[in-house]
Every structure is written in structure tokens, then in C-alpha cells.
Design goal:
CATH topology: Rossmann fold
Strand content: 15-25%
Shape: globular
Number of strands: 8
CATH architecture: 3-Layer(aba) Sandwich
Radius of gyration: 19 Å
Length: about 290
């Protein structure tokens, strides 16, 4: 989700708490739409065992269920994450919607699954937030996949809100302060996914990479900017600064102004926005 990388306890009085619930409000159906687009070429057949790796609050599993014509089909979803707060949200949704899933707190670098036991592993919005370019996690996934099993992994190829966040940070924060999501644009190159999958043990000729569009609709645009600005800083090494509280309104105004300039922005009549993302999706077969 958004694991803190600092011990800074200061939080501006204007900031929302960076909870899984806030994350869900920010992304809307974006993460579920990303998972749907990533899985669009896959057949969820009877008896399949699926690993929803880094499941968060359930976007990937919701996408899986939406792709099943027969809701009573005999499938099994093993959902894992290291965020207990996110898993609590996942569990409540799984119970409410009667998903054939079980969620557990597991680090993707050490999976509790037997060798050759998983048919399909979904890495939705996960690979680029892991350390060491995710090699250890991918090796674990490779180990657990059955021969002929598949991993579906995605990364962003274009994020309309990334540059506005970074412009806002450069304008309102001291020079040299770490930028939010710094380095994420490395993953815009589709070859990056292929490279990390090969390091994880997958063969080059069994990897297919494609680019897909993903859309989501936001809440009212100023509220959206406030929520996103609130969420990102807890995960940076710098954390919050005292000056962030003093320059809060300026930062939000800059973010909104810059977001409106982006290629992926469309303002809706009610003050919300429709955002267009692009994603690289790789499917690799063991």
C-alpha cells in the first residue's frame, strides 16, 4: 500500500490520514480496471487456483470475479499482502461478496505455497514498489507456479498525476527534497517488465508484453488533489515538512493547475475528473 520509509511523526493539520480507505477513495475503480485490462486475455477455468499477490483491499480479486460468467465456478483465490489494515478491508469485502478466497499476511519474498501449486499469479500494481527490482518475489512466484502456469504483472506506462505531483513538490518544498514516487517513470519502458521477469527465472520467449489503457473517475478535483497529496508523503524518506503545512493551500492549487494540463485529464461537469492512464502488461508462462 503505502508503507512509511521514515520516522517523522509530524503531519500537517490539513492532511487526511493515509489509510487503506483513503487509498480506495483516491484510486476509485482504477486498480480494479487495471486488473481487468491485465487479465482480459486470460480464461478463468473451472478448478483454477489463483494467487492475488499484494492483494491490498481487493481490486485484483474483484476483477477476477467480474471475469467469471458462472459465479459458482470452482475456483480458489489465495490473497496475500503485508498490510493488516488493507487485509481487514479485503476480508470484509470478500465475505460480503462471497468470494472463494482466503487472505493472509504474507511477504511475497517468502510464500507459504508448495512448489508447482498455482495456476495463475496476478501482480496488480505491485512489481515497481518492491525492493531489488522484485527479483526475489518473482523467483518465489516462479517456484509456486505449475508447469504451464502464468504470471500476469503490470506497471504504469503513463501516469497523468505523477508530473503534477512532482512539479508541486519542486515548487513548494526546499531544493533537493526527495520527489514523490521518484524513479517510477523508469517503468514506463515496457522492456523493464521483461528484464525483471527474466531475472526472476522466466524465459524470454515465454513472455508477452502489451500496452493497455486504464481509466478512472475521481472525486471533486480539489478534494482529489488534497487526498492524493495527503497520501504520498508518508511513504517518502523525507516525510512531511513543517513548511508543507504552511504552504498547503498553495500546493493544492498548483497540483490542480498542473493536473488540468496533462494529456490524461478530462474534467467532468460535476467537478470530478476522468483520468487516462497507460499500463504495460506482461504475461509469462512457466
Amino acid at each position: 500500500m503505502n508503507a512509511p520509509k521514515n520516522d517523522n511523526k509530524f503531519v500537517p493539520k490539513q492532511a487526511y490520514a493515509a489509510t487503506p480507505q483513503l487509498y480506495d477513495k483516491i484510486v476509485g475503480f482504477g486498480m480494479e480496471n487495471l486488473a481487468k485490462a491485465s487479465l482480459s486475455n486470460e480464461t478463468i477455468h473451472d478448478g483454477i487456483t489463483i494467487h492475488d499477490n499484494g492483494c491490498g483491499t481487493g481490486a485484483g480479486s474483484a476483477a477476477i470475479m467480474s471475469l467469471i460468467a458462472d459465479k459458482h465456478k470452482n475456483i480458489s483465490i489465495k490473497a496475500t499482502d503485508i498490510d493488516n489494515n488493507a487485509l481487514a478491508v479485503y476480508q470484509a469485502r470478500a465475505e460480503k461478496e462471497n468470494w472463494p478466497s482466503k487472505c493472509i499476511n504474507v511477504d511475497c519474498h517468502s510464500l507459504p505455497f508448495a512448489d508447482n501449486s498455482i495456476d495463475l499469479s496476478l501482480w496488480n500494481n505491485l512489481v515497481f514498489i518492491l525492493p531489488q527490482e522484485s527479483t526475489l518475489g518473482l523467483k518465489e512466484t516462479y517456484r509456486t507456479l505449475k508447469p504451464g502456469g502464468k504470471i500476469v504483472v503490470n506497471s504504469w506506462a503513463y501516469i497523468p498525476n505523477l508530473e503534477p505531483m512532482q512539479v508541486t513538490a519542486m515548487t513548494t518544498r526546499p531544493p533537493g527534497t526527495q520527489l514523490p514516487r521518484d524513479g517510477l517513470d523508469e517503468w514506463y519502458n515496457a522492456n523493464k517488465l521483461e528484464e525483471v521477469l527474466i531475472k526472476g527465472g522466466f524465459e524470454k520467449d515465454k513472455i508477452v508484453v502489451e500496452k493497455v489503457e486504464v481509466f478512472t473517475e475521481t472525486v471533486e478535483i480539489v478534494q482529489y488533489a488534497t487526498m492524493l497529496w495527503s497520501f504520498v508523503w508518508g511513504s517518502t524518506e523525507a516525510g512531511w515538512l513543517k513548511s508543507d503545512e504552511e504552504r498547503w493551500d498553495e500546493a493544492i492549487a498548483i497540483f490542480v493547475r498542473e493536473l488540468r494540463k496533462t494529456e490524461g485529464f478530462e474534467e467532468l461537469e460535476d467537478g470530478r475528473a476522468r483520468l487516462r492512464f497507460m499500463a504495460n502488461v506482461a504475461t509469462a508462462t512457466k
